[in-house]
Amino acid sequence: MSAPAPPMGLLAEVTHRCPLQCPYCSNPLELERAAGELDTATWLRVLGEAADLGVLQVHFSGGEPTARRDLPDLVRRAAERQLYSNLITSGVLLDERLLAELVEAGLDHVQLSFQDVETANAERIGGLVGAQAKKRAAAAMVQQAALPLTLNFVIHRQNMEHLPDMIALGTELGAERIEVAHVQYYGWGLVNRDRLLPGREQLEAATAEVEAARIRLKGRMVIDYVTPDYYARRPKACMGGWGRRFINVTPAGKALPCHAAETIPGLDFPSVRDQSLAAIWQSDPAFERYRGTDWMAEPCRSCDRREVDWGGCRCQALALTGDAGNTDPACALSPHHQAMQAAIAAADRATASDFVYRRIGAAPKVEA
Ligand code: SF4
Ligand code: FES
């Protein structure tokens, strides 16, 4: 078997610590405590190994990556090794001193998340009073530092009606790009699915709003739109395909093909404490497990889109069908596609709006 092409991006989840508690967080339910995090020297080595492997971009993520005091050192190593660095942040811990250190270290880009534009609802969703003003201040500091800024809005049943104002906030804060992303339903998002999954009318209104804004703002601001799988007829190529485009490293040093991969039973993920990133990427059995098309069963195996979407998302297939090797039920050709409609109907019937918040040491029990 020939060696796989190098990953384009490294998602460096440097910590799970975070002052916010978003109920759709992509982190696992079992969150890592500070004591279990990789030390600075190991992260510096991993960044060097990523550059050696051919990685082009590193996304510093979390949790809240600015909770790590050594973040400027990590950014500096990325810059030394010509890795494009993106900081994915809630902004609430950012101050002028830290931003200046990050700029001096060579940070290339900031992606700042907002939970809503309406302050009370944003702070209810994020679970942190006072967050909205800090986020606005962070956006102003990033603009002042002349760093490219992307605003990220995760949209769902409980904030979607504010989408026009979210787009307006992007222009007001000088963002070059905004990402409007529907919740991905695994981990905390799956726990809260009934409270988050939008109705069809909400979805259609949001999609129309994005399309109109793209025309209106052409040449001024780019709008990326991540559509919801639950209304799809064909799945997305999750992570660009398993073990094809991205490698994630968790706070504790586990290397994963995607952030939810540890939910898949029977896969033993390697640690960057024990092996180089290259050795993991090129031959680790967990990375090989769903790479390419050999693992596929029907209907994917004989489908002409099998090298377009790579069978969709393994973690979603697991969550909704019980087997990560099944076709993603977002695909209308999947025998489990009905699970999507059933989830939409359940969300439409649900009345609770109170969230199960993401908290370290408070993993909820998940029914199979
Ligand atoms: Fe993609 Fe498989 Fe559906 Fe074909 S059958 S569109 S490869 S998920
Ligand atoms: Fe794991 Fe999609 S999140 S493959």
Topology order in helix (H) and strand (E) letters:
EHEHEHEHHEHEHHHEEEHHHH
* Silhouette: globular
Q: Which parts are unreliable, with pLDDT below 50 for 5 consecutive residues or more?
A: none
Distance between the termini: 36 Å
Mean pLDDT, all residues = 95
Largest beta sheet: what is the strand line-up? 7-6-5-4-3-2-1-8-9
For the largest beta-sheet, the strand count, sense and barrel status come to: 9 strands, mixed
Please state the CA-atom Rg, rounded to the nearest Å.
Answer: 20 Å
With helices defined by DSSP (H or I, 4 residues minimum), what is the helix count? Answer: 13
What portion of residues is helical? 25-40%
Strand content: 5-15%
Q: Got a strand count?
A: 9
Bound molecules: iron/sulfur cluster, FE2/S2 (inorganic) cluster
Q: By helix and strand content, what is the structural category?
A: alpha/beta
Q: What does the model show?
A:
The protein is α/β, with parallel strands linked by helices and 368 residues long. The protein has helices at residues 40-53, 71-80, 96-105, 119-126, 131-144, 163-172, 188-191, 193-196, 200-216, 277-283, 285-288, 314-321, 338-349; strands at 9-13, 57-61, 84-89, 109-114, 149-155, 177-182, 222-226, 246-249, 255-256. The chain has a nine-stranded mixed β-sheet with strand order 7-6-5-4-3-2-1-8-9. Helix 6 (163-172) links the parallel strand 5 (149-155) and strand 6 (177-182). The longest helix is centred in the middle third of the chain and has 17 residues, at 200-216. The chain is globular. The chain starts with 8 loop residues before the first strand and ends in a 19-residue tail after the last helix. The mean pLDDT is 95.
